[in-house]
Amino acid sequence: MEELSSYGYKVVGPLMAEYVYWILKECIRNKIEKIYFLARDGYLLKEMASLLCEKNGLNIECRYLYCSRIALRTPTYSFIGEEAYEYLFYPSLNITLRLLLNRLLLNIEEIRKVCEDIGADIENIDRELNTDEFEVLKQKLKRSPVYNKYMLDKSKSGYKNTVEYLRQEGLFESDVVIVDVGWAGTMQHSLARLLKREGYKGKIEGYYFGMYHAAKSEEAGIYHTFYFDFSNHINRKAQFDNKLFEIMLTAPHGMTLFYECRNGEYIPVLQEYEMKEEINFSVQVHKGALSYLNDSPDESFRSFDTENAQKRVCKLIGKHIMEPDRAEVELFRRVYFSDDVFNSNLSKVIEDDPGDIIKNNLFYYRILNKLIFRKKEKIKQTIWPYGIAALYSNPKKIWYRLNIYMYEYIKYFLLRKRER
Known about the structure:
- 54% of the residues lie in helices and 11% in strands.
- It is α/β, with parallel strands linked by helices.
- Strands 2-1-3-4-5 form a 5-stranded parallel sheet. A two-stranded antiparallel ribbon has the order 6-7. The protein has a two-stranded antiparallel sheet with strand order 8-9.
- α1 (2-29) packs across α2 (42-56) and α1 packs across α12 (276-295).
- The radius of gyration is 22 Å and the shape is globular.
- The chain is built from 19 helices and 9 strands.
- The protein starts with a helix and ends with a helix.
- 37% of the residues are buried.
């Protein structure tokens, strides 16, 4: 536990403090008096912001909004047309049929009926799919009357409680300012759609650590970024790892699934969260991060400068995300992570036998996989490639790290061209 708290104090605290300083400075500059930190990545950020407001006498109300991609997207599926399929069928690590159906929160009986309708074997719903199989399955689900009925039913039944929860939390009262780490701004987009469908006329703004993608539409509002956006800083993106960043921030509670009305109050229903290692990790790391902020001199906030802060963050990311030492990597040995909206298909951050996985991250192998092998076999990737590389000695460590960086740099270079 001491090692985790120390990591929070030495790494997570300094890294997140710069981001939170920036958020509050922007709020002061723009005369913003209330900000909503979105669950779950906003949990620690909200605690840090509240502490800073107290230390510096800032009249800024910091609120924590229980929400998730799945909780905000599902109520919109009934009125956004074909775009609903983009959200329901987007690729992630370890795609299976169960994972796709979980995105609609289907129970086992509903899953069985969908499988019958599309001719799928329910005994194989946990088998990982390659690219060809994934494409075939998407088309079957799009044509399935059973699947589409469930999608519309779930969307319509969840709409009222979602909107009323947002109303209860004060989002219809004035301009809305949210904080989320990134990376495509889809929660802000879904939030804007729900508010505006109910007649909301105010402004919506989001403050993000970084954005890989451009905003989907102007109706989503305004996006502000601290460290990078879709159009710049390819080098920063190539050195960064957004999954590890999220692990550092994740709240010690389950994901928001939907909302219920109990005794006239609208409350979030959370996914059961029994991963004791992850809960302990979050509690201890966050404890250390808050201790760091509490020990920081007030001058750190008063003299904050965005450009210098970005330089400090770049050094921290280079040292602790791109080039971590082995002891830091070992702290994540028993931590799991999912990049899916349903938080299922958990993968170990640091695999027990990373040999084949690190080879999969060699530059030439990943390029060949993209161009040739991707439709013939499932190539397993890892949560934190730079962390796996750190487990090796030089010169292998340097060679693996270079391969990872080259691939990431080209990936974000091509992504920037597409986004423009």
